[in-house]
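Re: weekly structure request thread

Next one in the queue (755 aa):
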Amino acid sequence: MATPPPVPTTTPGKKNAVANAAAASFAGLTAKLDYLTAADVEQVRMAYRFADEAHLGQLRNNGEPYITHPIAVATQCAEWKLDAQALMAALLHDAMEDCSVTKVELIERFGSPVAELVDGLTKLDKLQFNTREENQAESFRKMLLAMARDVRVILIKLADRSHNMRTLSDVPKTKWARIASETLDIYAPIAHRLGLNMTYRELQDLSFRHLRPWRYNTLSKAVAKARNRRRDLIQKVQKEVEVAFADAGMKVRIAGREKSLYSIYQKMVNKHLSFAQVTDIYGLRVVVPTVVDCYTALGILHQLYKPVPGKFKDHIAIAKLNGYQSLHTTLVGPAGINVEFQMRTEAMHLVAESGVAAHWLYKVNNPQEASNDRLGTKWLQSLLDIQNETRDATEFWDHVKVDLFPDAVYVFTPKTQIMALPRGATVVDFAYAIHSNIGDRTVAARINGEQVPLRTELKNGDVVEIVTAAISAPNPAWLGFVRTGRARSKIRHHLKTMEQTESENLGGRLLLQALRAEGFDAFPAESPEYQPIWDKLLRFTGNKTRHELLTDIGLGKRIANIVAKRLVLLLAETGYKPDAILLSRERFTAHESTNQGAITLDGSENASVQFAQCCRPIPGDSIVGYLGRGEGLVVHVHDCPIARKLKAKDAERFIGVDWSEEPVRAFETGVLVTVNNGKGALAKVAAALASAEADIVHIDMTQEGAEEACDLRFLVQVRDTAHLDTALRNLRRTQTVLRAQRTGGASNGNGNGNS
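Done, posted below.
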């Protein structure tokens, strides 16, 4: 490459003009493109000319021609050795947004792959959003989806953000906080997740510098002073280590490593340390030829200096989520100063500094060898899976923020396959990480051979075994403790589908009962003969399909009686008459308190039926059902005050409900126990409930201090009223109990009142 001629001495104004011209020229970028073919370089040059012409006349905040920004972004991409298409997209990345260049024009000039990359990078300025958070979530979603299809998009985006952060001082100060916070919350974690550690550290430090300028400057000066004080010590350690490796005949490359300002600041804040108490600001990195040499180097260092207990980490045997591999150990050096050492190979160093970008670097350095195409793609694909099930941008952002969390736990399947999950992940997260069908059917789990609750958090090294059942389904309570976005989105998706199916089934039962009360024992069939009747009925209700109508009835959005009467009128117009015998029988046996026949409940209804928390009905109670608007069927005890108020306002929304003879599960109800305030009172009450086989779900205790008596409020699970009576009798026989009674339930003479 020809060296540009020296800049002649000029006036300051001319100097700036010459500097701007140099920054806006292609020559600086050309020097970085020696890894590309001549044809590829010419393609990149064509993209530069097009972008230069498109941005002609535009200036950045510092007065430089706008083209200097695309050139800087492309230069960073060239540092990562990205291919010609990515460099062309980097040069053109603002052309569609700022210069009214169309995607079709880019396809014609540079081909579809380049146009797709530019389209993935184009910002969403033209779209309108209600809140800044939603805007952020939506643009972030588009960016991640583009990344999931082609990781080059996010690499160009990170190069773009890096240059914007380097020149943030030229932007008005009023914008610093927003841009720096966004970088810290969104772009830095993505860089870390993709293993771009140099970019990650730079984005963090630049954000810190503009968010907390005073603290940044103070800490920067403190680090500079400490660097001068410890320079001799670090140099001494480095020389001693070099001699030790030379004596062992090992070829190594040793370099100093300094902790970034932001990570020092975070450590001080999180651990409440002063700057003097942060001991691992400086360290040494040892790069060796092979993996075996890493462990040999560790042995040599441990013979040279004493290791600090608990400060050894093997990230080679179990790599981090972003592909990072190294051995870490902290040793007590001269003068009692702790020094951290990292041992890695050249290939590991490449991945540690460049992460996913190492894919292209590796291709350039080793063109004949198979590269790690799957580096980072598992996480990217999981984001695409979440997007397919979650259409709400803010919800998607919540999922992704969880998965961006860099800390991880590593667990094993029964077949010893290693799985990495975010810290705090539970057994259910593990099940969904294996397969969505495994997660949906999970009923129990064993960790290291022992049975554990499904909410158990996983620890490093756990061997996790999932027990499934074909009839099992996700429990809404799981949403309260799952940690990963994948698990949360799968559970929500399943629950929404299940709720719709159950509501449709309930709506069908309600409409059929209402029809029987009108003298028809079945729906008109879905056949051409009855289609006009269904069409007229759907026009009357405003529904698009029969399934939607039945779902609305099940959710209480439509009244089954009104729909049935309209259907009967339509049938009568077509010549169909009610069955007189059925009509008289249904009216004779109709439920006394309602104007529809009764529905039988056994506890398996899930989302379509709710048992009211104001009265907590259990089998044996006399009950009524209320079709709440959009809530499905809500079951109350017949004399519940809330139900009486609702009935006075909305009598037509009440339907008859009865208990099945054999309910399939236990039901929750409240119990109030007044006890002598003494030692062991709670234990005795709990033992009395346990002996009656009543499971305790929740306990509330009144704060009554030194008073002689106190109230204990229990939420217990019982089979029916007879089972509850047994539990209450056990409580009343207990020595410390003064009174035991059911709360929020029926007073129907079953012995559930006051003692």
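The chain has a mean pLDDT of 78. Residues 213-247 form the longest helix (35 residues).
Next request, please.
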